[in-house]
Amino acid sequence: MLYIKPPRGDIQLSELHECVITRINYFLLRYQQDPAVSQNDLKFEYLQIGTALDRIGHFILRLLSLESQLVKEFIISSEATFTIERLEFLSSEQIVQLIKTTLRHIDEVDELSKDDTLWKIQIKYIFNQIKSAFKSAHIRDFKHDVSCTEYILKIPFEMCVSLVAKREVQLERGKVIVPCGKWKRFLRCFFEAHVKREIRKMESKGFGGEIITDQRLIELRDIVHKKLLKCTTNGSNKGKISLTDLNKVKTLFPPCMGYLYSNLKINHRLSHHARFNFSLFLKDIGMTLNESIAFWQEEYSKPSKCGGKCSHSWQKDGAKYIYSIRHLYGLEGKRANYYSPSCSKIQNNNLGPSEEGGCPFLTFDHCKLKNSLDPSVIQNQETFEKIMFLSSQNKPKAACEFYRKTLMKTASSTSLTDKEHKTPVEYFVILHKHSSLDFR
């Protein structure tokens, strides 16, 4: 039920490959409706909950997600939903058996830190309570009545922060009261919290660097990342983005990237991190390597208007810039796959005094934010005031979502309008689908 410990033993590389690819293909088909994937691509023996192959697929995907925020968020969300969906097809006896396996795996994990030990105690408490409810025949399956309160869990709020934020549960002296009718909702939330916690532990121990040294995992990582990126970005675009397209597609850029583009056009220079992020954004929306080099050469060949802050130029440093761009495309250095940062990463980034960028809805003042928005939005006083209010309340995600949906107010497809974005690239893709622009 909860992935605590990877399985022991050996597995053929070809079977490991099939196990992971089947899992990511299922996620893309089930949760992204990827037209490039069909049920014929799936081998369901790799997806049966609780089996060694199921655990292998989960733990390898968890490992391969470390280098990309986009992949990480997709894997965490998909794995949580996938687990709960499968539980709905199990009998109470099968669920009790899964809980017993989870509890046994917890006891088998050694060398725990103080925080890990506390987390382990909480997990055991939660699953012992759930097991008791199923054994008593009070809960027959996870289609349990959502209004039922006969069995109650009292747990630390950090184990289900999203339920607390949505006021779906009660707080009592620092503990969250979760009745059995909401256990399914809680388990999904708790599963996400657990996987996020385990990924943070791997990141803190530098496991990502170790993966790079194993060519077999590098190849598998690249396949997974490309599949997900193709589905969420280029696979959804109407064509590649060329240098000549930029002026007409800039209206589809999210404000954070639109601001960088405007600054670049005015000053012909960007700070290091801003250039890094904007280059990745252009790459991920479909700009080829050669087009990207031509784009930066055009701007950096012009005199800088940064007031002496930047002495670099294409004439003097062109070779360095070309190497840097090739590096971002995975063709130099460690040949890693780099991806445009997520919205949450941009929002949490601490900018230096000379750095450009950040989330406009979080870091810009009133005047600067106003200048970053589309004129059609500013002209609507009520809409503009709502955006400014959300921004002033430190709700950048809500402000950006509302802004994008305002631009799409004539959309014929509500599924597009309602779709959330977690990255600047996803913002662009959603607007691109809605627009009549086509690129060849």
- Tell me the name of the CATH class of the largest domain: Mainly Alpha
Output the strand order for the largest sheet: 1-3-2
Mean pLDDT: 85
What level of helicity do the residues show?
55-70%
Radius of gyration: 24 Å
Question: Any idea what the shape is?
Answer: globular
Named CATH architecture of the largest domain? Up-down Bundle
Strand content: under 5%
Euclidean distance between termini CA atoms: 48 Å
Number of helices: 22
Give a short account of the largest sheet: 3 strands, antiparallel
The CATH topology of the largest domain comes to Transcription Elongation Factor S-II, Chain A
Number of strands: 3
**Helix-strand sequence:** HHHHHEHEEHHHHHHHHHHHHHHHH
Uncertain regions spanning at least 5 consecutive residues: 234-238, 410-415
Structurally, the number of domains stands at 2
Name the structural class: mainly alpha
Oligomer: single chain
Describe this structure in words.
With 440 residues, the chain is mainly alpha-helical. The chain has 2 domains: 13-227, Transcription Elongation Factor S-II, Chain A (Up-down Bundle); 233-434, no CATH class. It is 59% helix and 3% strand. The protein contains 22 helices and 3 strands. It has helices spanning 13-32, 52-64, 69-87, 92-108, 114-135, 161-165, 183-204, 207-212, 215-232, 246-249, 255-267, 272-284, 289-300, 314-328, 343-348, 360-363, 366-372, 375-378, 381-392, 396-407, 414-418, 424-434, and strands spanning 152-156, 170-172, 175-179. Strands 1-3-2 form a 3-stranded antiparallel beta sheet. Strand 2 and strand 3 (175-179) form a beta hairpin. Helix 4 runs antiparallel to helix 5 (114-135). The radius of gyration is 24 Å and the shape is globular. It starts with 12 loop residues before the first helix and ends in a 6-residue tail after the last helix. Keywords: 4Fe-4S, DNA replication, Iron, Iron-sulfur, Metal-binding, Primosome. Residues 249-428 form the DNA primase large subunit C-terminal domain.
